[in-house]
Structure formats: structure tokens, C-alpha cells
Amino acid sequence: MSISITSDFDGGNIEVLKANGAKFDLAIRSDKDSDFYQWFYFRVADAAGAELELRITNCGGSAYPLGWNDYSARVSEDGKDWTCADTAYADGVLTIRHTPTEGCVWFAYFAPYSNEQHHSLIARIAAHDHVEHRVLAQTLDGRPIDLLTLGGGNLQVWLYARQHPGETMAEWWMEGALDLLVSDDPVAQKLLAAATFYVVPNMNPDGSARGHLRTNSVGVNLNREWHAPSLDRSPEVWHVRAIMDETGVDFAMDVHGDEAIPHVFVAGFDGIPSWTQRQGDLYTRFANELAARTVDFQTQHGYPTAGAGKANLSMSTNQLAERFGAVSMTLEMPFKDNDDAPDPRHGWSPERSRQMGRDCLAVLAGMIDDL
Asked: Where's the active site on this chain (predicted)?
């Protein structure tokens, strides 16, 4: 039987341009109604023992072409253990080489987190007695926007992820954070006594299912909608921000992945008009304590900071800090390996993302009384 390639499944994305035995020329599809593309996820079948050569030919025009340097595609033969494939990038072409031992093998930009996994996570966490689940609304494609509420303390803490759907490490982070919050760990007990947690594990289920990198079903980048969301373009943000207006926000973390920077870091709210020293000190304290806790986090590498009054208030971290006086931040994890603690076999991985979720909450517990 001839080798075949498909991405006709939840989160899949690839087009076959040319096939010659075990050699394929491929292209990543753009997000619908958008020029963004970088996420790929596909299955190769009937390939046991074949020396696959998979050339993704349009990487030079992708959203973040610097993301391909020193990057390794992820490969799995069981859909669970994702390892780094032999990967090279030159002249706009990403070449993946792999010889599968099984008939089917999957390749992805990062370990996927499917909508089926999302629904299983929601059901498992919501089954705990002290967790409230509600569907805020439906997306434009008719998918639920899920909100989990835990705890009863006076502080209002919001955690949300996957505004950019291709950044699947963000929902792996959520899995680790939620598993801690429903456990008997003293960190969870302290947090839930002091705060009420509002958790949106996937802000962009439409983009996730469609195999998008950065946008929802109508090509909108949700993290540029927080100043003026609308029901016809960005209902995901509109509904979440409406609940935030009811609850207020004391602390918020927006969880992401970064294509180019091989480190874990946070970005804050420098440059908002109402910036206060207290907000800035608490943000800096969180970052420094997280760096002291784990080698997987650092404070030297990240994004440039905005000058006074120059913050982009369409982005959630800036909007929440300005709107509520919150200590808010964007957490970024790499698609590449983490240069501070490299793992040649797995690179940055689901387990390290889950552990980062647990570590972030441990740091928050240490400073929760000062928020």
C-alpha cells in the first residue's frame, strides 16, 4: 500500500503538494480569513520502516519564520509520547526525517491538545464537589466557552489560556494547574481559602478545532480585542470580559507559547496609564520567586517593555491591569526546547508545561496574602 498523509481531524493542518514514495512536499494552511500560519498537525499512514522525508515548503512566509531556527518537530507513534524528530530548516523549507516502526505516525508543531481532551478535562475537574462549571456562551462555530470556578476567598484570580489556539502548551499548563487546585496539596488549600479562581482552559475552541495558529473562526486575533470585544467578531473575549466586570480581577495570568524565544518568561503591563509601584513590585516579585523555584523559568530573556503610556490596551494583560488595577501577566512557554534546561529527547513538553502550572500556583500561594 502507498504511504498517505491526512490532517482531516480535530486540530489537523497540512496540505500535500507532491508525493514521491516516502518523500512529500507539504504546505501549512493559513488560518481562515487570515494570513497567520505556523501550526501543523498530520498523520502519516502505511509508513512502517519507510525513511520519510517531509518537506514543509512554505515556512519562510509563516507568521514567525525565526521560530524555525533550532526547532524540532514533534513526532508520536502512539498519540501520547511526543518526542523531537530529526528536523532541519533552510531557505524557507522545514525538513523532517523519520523512520516509523509502526504503520501510523503523527507529526505536530507541538504536542496537540484536542477538543476531546478539553472536554474530558472539564468533566474530570467539574466532577469535584467544590468546583462549579458553567458555559458562558457559544462560539461562532457553536462550541461552548467553558468556565470553571473554585474556592471562596475574597481575592479574584483569573487564569485563561489558548487565546492563540496553536499554543497547545497553554492547555497542558492548565491541566497541571487544575489538577493541583482540586488536590489535597497545602498549596491548593491556601489558595482556595484566600481567593476565588475563575479558569478558562481554552479561550479559542473554534481555532483549536480548525487547526489555526492564532485566530478564531473568522480570522480574529483574540488577544487584540480586549479594549472593544464584539459578539460578531470576538464573542469569546466579550463574554469572558463581561464576567470579569462582575467579579473584578486582582490577579490574572494569560497562558501562551512563543515560537521564537527558547525560554520560559512572563510579560507584564509596563506602560499602562494607571501603572502603580505596588502593581509593578508584585509582578516583579512573582517573576523573581518563580525563577528561584525552577530552572525552567528565567527573567533575562523576553519581550521589550513598553514606555510610559505606550501599553497596547487591546491585549488582555494590559487591559486587565488598567481596567481593574490587577497584577496581570502573560506567561510564555517555548515551542523549541528550553535553552536553560534542554531535553534533547522531548524538548519543551506537556509534562514540563503541567509542572509549570503547578510551580506558578505555588509561587502565587507564597504571595497571596499580599495581593
From this structure: 332
Same domain, 292 and 343: yes
Give the tens place of pLDDT for each residue, 103-117: 999 999 999 999 999
26: domain CATH number?
2.60.40.3120
Same domain, yes or no, for 54 and 160?
A: no
CB-count exposure of residue 219 (10 Å: 0-12, 13-18, 19+) = middle
pLDDT tens-digit series, residues 146-183: 999 999 999 999 999 999 999 999 999 999 999 999 99
Distance CA 316, CA 322 (A): 10
Coil, helix or strand for 327? strand
* The model scores a pTM over 0.85: yes
Distance CA 306, CA 303 (A): 9
Sheet holding 41-45, edge to edge: 4-6, 41-45, 105-108, 74-76, 83-84
252, 255, 259, 260: CA torsion to nearest 10: 40
Q: Which of 15, 322, 332, 351 is catalytic?
A: 332
CA 273 to centroid of chain Cα atoms = 28
Q: Does residue 171 have an active-site annotation?
A: no
